Amino acid sequence: MSNRYAIILAAGKGTRMKSKLYKVLHQVCGKPMIRHVVDEAGRADFSKIYVIVGHGANDVKAAVGKDAECLLQKEQLGTGHAVLQAADQLADLDGTTVVLYGDTPLITHQTIEKLIHIQEEQHAAAAVLTATIEDPTGYGRVIRDASGNVAKIVEDKDANSDEKRVKEINTGIYCFNNRKLFTLLRQVTNNNAQGEYYLPDVIGLLVQGSEKVIAYETESFEETLGVNDRIQLAAAGKYMQERINQTMMKNGVTLVDPASTYLSAECTIGNDTVIYPGTIISGQSRIGSGCTVGPHSQIKNCVIGDETQIEQSVLEDSWIGNHVQIGPFAHIRPLSKIHDQAKVGNFVEVKNTEIGERSKASHLTYLGDATLGKDVNMGCGTITVNYDGKNKFATKIGDGAFIGCNANLVAPVTIGEGAFVAAGSTITQSVNNNALAIARSRQTNKENYALKLNYRANH
């Protein structure tokens, strides 16, 4: 691995977000912004990644995990001061340092790598990532010299009329010769209206010292968008979703309406799977090939096999096999496991339950804390009575058992292999293999009794 380093600035609170959550922890397509940046940096060729933390330091560190080293900026005194927090680790090293931001979740490792490549190839002291936009109002302009190198970066409020017409803007992302960066950072002053130490001042010092500063213009301006408020957060989410959806479609997934399909940045979907509108697939869900999902389904942190059909249902933290049918209007709650060719039909709720191969719960059923063997039939309206108000209890149903409609299985209870439970039964004792269990009051008909009730008089 080369002597390349990344510094990600993530110390700001983000007051414009108007949130108790620190800015870089706000999610874009199901993942905190800081994680997007750390993950993309991790895909580039860096020897070490540092994250500068400040507000909410412990929470940000938790999100970063072991993928980068966090350095604390006790006082937020500007971007230059933030980068200086890595001086003890980097100032005496040869190599290249890229400065990124924890609130630019759309940056890609390809763009980072291109910026590094052009800076190293041209032996420049620094490279500035730029973009050209039609309306550059509010952005710092990149002014080039006759050779095409960077002559200066001028802020919008300080630009003259000619400079204001320049449409190439500074994105704030830089690649530096590491030693020169830290040498000049110590010369940056805070003689400005904000009393802060600004990283772009290093570019000015390099130019003054006749050092070569170049610009690399990205074709994807949206990659460089920073998020400062909820409006920009939504815009970043839209760009990210388009990117995710396009990647999925290029890999062989059919999205019937990409604009109304929401996929997390960490989910995977196999080829020839069809996703219908209104579907949300979140977390680290993994969906196999040839599946049909939706419309209007929600899947969170599930593993789903091949050729499975899910229609208008909600699935959470569960494992689903191949050729399974789920829905419409089913709810698969956490810790459930549904094996191949099983069916969970309309208005069926499953919680912490294992359903064996080819078993069916076709409609209006609750299965909680249960284990079903193979080829089990659960009749309409069947309930595993798993909770006594204090503790949860398990129900076990053997292979080939048939549970009639409207049965209550009062746990803890075991239904043996091949056993039958008559419709309307409330089972409180275990049933042996191949036995028939009937647990209901004997019917009594009282002739003409309805006449005595006189119900019809009011109709």
Q: Would you write up a description of this structure?
A:
This protein has 459 residues and is an alpha/beta fold. The chain is 19% helix and 30% strand. It contains ten helices and 39 strands. The strands form six sheets. The chain has a 16-stranded parallel sheet that branches. Helix 7 packs across helix 8. Acetyl-CoA binds at residues 386-387, 423, 440. InterPro entries: Bifunctional_GlmU (IPR005882), GlmU-like (IPR050065), GlmU_C_LbH (IPR038009), GMPPB_C (IPR056729), Hexapep (IPR001451), Hexapep_transf_CS (IPR018357), MobA-like_NTP_Trfase (IPR025877), Nucleotide-diphossugar_trans (IPR029044). Its EC number is 2.7.7.23, 2.3.1.157. Residues 231-251 are annotated as: Linker.
Number of strand segments: 39
**Distance between the terminal alpha carbons, to the nearest Å?**
88 Å
Global structural class: alpha/beta
At CATH level 3, the topology of the largest domain is Spore Coat Polysaccharide Biosynthesis Protein SpsA, Chain A
The helical percent reads 10-25%
Figure out the total of helices: 10
Describe the secondary-structure layout.
Elements: E1 4-10, E2 27-28, E3 31-32, H1 33-43, E4 48-53, H2 57-64, E5 69-72, H3 79-84, H4 87-90, E6 96-101, H5 109-121, E7 126-132, E8 141-144, E9 150-154, H6 161-164, E10 168-177, H7 178-185, H8 200-208, E11 213-217, H9 230-250, E12 254-255, E13 262-263, E14 268-269, E15 274-275, E16 280-282, E17 286-287, E18 292-293, E19 298-300, E20 303-304, E21 309-310, E22 314-316, E23 319-320, E24 325-326, E25 331-332, E26 337-338, E27 343-351, E28 354-355, E29 360-368, E30 370-372, E31 377-378, E32 383-385, E33 395-397, E34 402-403, E35 408-410, E36 413-415, E37 420-421, E38 426-427, E39 436-437, H10 449-453
Parallel strand pairs: 1-4, 1-6, 4-5, 7-11, 12-15, 13-16, 14-17, 15-18, 16-19, 17-20, 18-21, 19-22, 20-23, 21-24, 22-25, 23-26, 24-27, 25-27, 26-28, 27-29, 28-30, 29-31, 30-33, 31-34, 32-35, 33-36, 34-37, 35-38, 37-39
Antiparallel strand pairs: 2-3, 6-10, 7-10, 8-9
Helix pairs in contact: 7-8
